[in-house]
Amino acid sequence: MKAKHMKRAAQVLMLIVVAALFVYPFWWMLVNSLNTAAQVFGKPTLLPVAWRFVNYVEIFQVQPFARHLMNSVLVALIGTVGNILVSALSGYGFARIRFPGNNILFILLLTALMMPIEVIIVPLFFQMLQWGFSDSLVPLMLIPIFGAQGAFSAFMFRQFFVTVPLELEEAAKLDGLSTLGTFWHIMLPIAKPVIASGAILAFLAAWNTYLEPLVFTSSIENFTLPLSLNNFNDSYGEPQWNLQMAATTVSVLPIMLVYLFFQEKVTDAMVNSGLK
Amino acid sequence: MNNSLAARRLRRREALTGYAFVMPQLIGFTIFVLIPLVNVFIYSFHNKNMLFGTNIFIGFDNYTKLFTNDSLFWMTLKNTFVFSVLLVPLNLILALLLALYLGDGGFGTRFTRTVIFLPVVTSGVAWAIVWKYLLQSGTAGPVNYFLSLAGIPGPNWLTDKGWAMVSVVINRVLKNLGTNVLIFYGAVMNMPQDVIEAARIDGADSFTLLRRIKLPLLMPTILMVSIVTMIGSMRVFDTIRLMTDGGPEGSTMVLVYYIYHQAFKMFNTGYASAIAVVLFVIVLILTIIQWALRKKVSHYES
User: Fewest CB within a 10 Å sphere: which of A101, A224, B88, B282?
Assistant: First the structure.
């Protein structure tokens, strides 16, 4: 009986620690997004003191936050859709179509998996500069498509398409479908789980990335959320800690809600990519 | 004769179709990975400056300077190493403990599984910004406030030379812990239950069970995860730039931070590229180890 109580106490203690480390930071963020700037460094409270909802209006007034939000959405959406289209095509090509160099080219592509963007960002910056993409969102959209994230999606698609029974394609071919038609009408629809995993990973990577927008954009109109969040500090003289927390909440909350709704799918995708 | 000609033509068509399918990805890969990789090597042999537009071939001069005449480089290399050496074991031990706890399937496991993944899906920027507040010095930050309630005077987490590195390590461990926990959890759930049961019947207590049965069974996964985590730790940047900005006194300045600093603050493009090549070599070596391990692991699994 005593041992059982001890065990329960240990479990409760464990949960308190877990909540303190993984939930409290977000709760603190939420609470202080509704406080005044001065209250942010006051005694921590469980609920907001000022209930200053106008913070969520002011974040749009002190800097072009709506623009930053739009930029992030645009970059993440185009990056994700492009990533899936391009990598599904190549994944299918590598898995199912015979052409000289198939294996070598696929292995070459896989080297992108181990290539940290940090290694190649300096020459990439110059290349984009030469092509007229300085201070531009275009590189931010293309990197998730063609960089490591793209190669990983192609890898997942190839591994999936290899396992699909040949009869399916043969039937489609007999029905008169071209290779592209077979890919689009037969193969892509059955690859939905891979599409979901790839899209989750590409979207998160594009939404959360910091180094790329830091390097490739310079004017405030072209900032994405990660740059924007850190711009509430010093740009208007007065510190705006509460606004920074409100903006951070806006950037984090949608992702978190999607995660909570599709928890299994999101964790599966992340775990698989962690094991790659 | 005619038949084989037709077959050849068909094969040719198929090959062309294949190239068409993989072409978009391969062209993009060439532009966004291959050419920059070749260029980073070429740049590293040049005195290339973004501001003055200089671009002179200087052979190995950048590397000579880097390794013999740049104490800042050695400091960043050492800091990166320290960061990794602190982060990897802490991450692995915590992840393993949490995975074993989740494996027991007791009270609160569902909650734990959900919330440890919240920082994983959050941007490193948001996670760093919030923790920068939590770790404010004095009793302004909640962490030190709660410590003071317990009578412990909290340190200056981000401005004290001894604590700044610890702070960014903790931030980073908590950010990514969830992934490793779930990888280990998968491995824990895949352990052959009959072996564990047999050991238990033979009278093994939980500690012996852990040390003699569970840990050896998990070892391949532990090795893989530690390499992957180590590679990730070499790439740390956003956390450091936002929480300490490399300070105090450069004590948290790491390789990627130094690449960024040399390239985009000092405009020493060639020199920054030489540092990037060093990072590339480190990541390459770790990746080769990872591949070798994976071969062993899959051998072990089959």
Answer: A101
Number of domains in chain B: 2
Classify residue B176 as exposed, middle or buried by CB count within 10 Å of its CB (0-12, 13-18, 19+). buried
Residue B178 lies in a domain: yes
Q: pLDDT, tens digit, for every residue of A137-149?
A: 999 999 999 999 9
- What residues in A contact B256, CB-CB < 8 Å? 118, 211
Q: For residue B165, what are the contacts with CB-CB under 8 A and spacing of at least 6? A: B79, B82, B83, B86, B251, B252
Same domain for B101 and B21, yes or no, is no
ipTM over 0.85: yes
Q: How far apart are CA A149 and CA A128, in angstroms?
A: 19
What does the angle CA A135 – CA A138 – CA A144 come to, to the nearest 5 degrees?
125
CATH number (domain holding residue B139):
1.10.3720.10
Q: What is the number of H-type helices and E-type strands within chain A? A: 17, 0
One domain for residues B22 and B132: no
Give the CATH superfamily of A63-231: MetI-like (1.10.3720.10)
- The reply to whether B157 and B273 lie within a common domain is yes
Are A274 and B127 a contacting pair at CB < 8 A?
no
pLDDT digits (tens, 9 = 90+) for A16-29: 999 999 999 999 99
Mutate to test the interface with B, among A13, A21, A39, A120 (most CBs of B within 10 A): A120
Q: Is the pLDDT of residue B119 over 50?
A: yes
Cβ-based contacts under 8 A for chains A and B: 258
**A116 close to B283: Cβ distance less than 8 angstroms:** yes
Q: Do residue B203 and residue B113 come from a single domain? A: yes
| Interface contact A39, partner B, CB < 8 A | no
pLDDT tens string B246-280: 989 999 999 999 999 999 999 999 999 999 999 99
Q: Is B166 exposed, middle or buried (0-12, 13-18, 19+ CB in 10 A)?
A: middle
Identify all chain B residues contacting A230, using CB atoms and an 8 Å cutoff.
125, 129, 242
Asked if the structure places residue B52 within a domain, the reply is no
Judged by CB atoms closer than 8 Å, whether chains meet at B121 and A248 is answered as no
**Pair A201, A149: CB distance under 8 Å:** yes
Domain co-membership, B37 together with B69: no
The model's pTM: 0.93
Chain B residue closest in CA terms to A123: B36
C-alpha dist (Å) from residue B205 to A117, A205, B185, B193, B199: 48, 44, 21, 16, 9
CB B164, CB B158: distance < 8 Å? yes
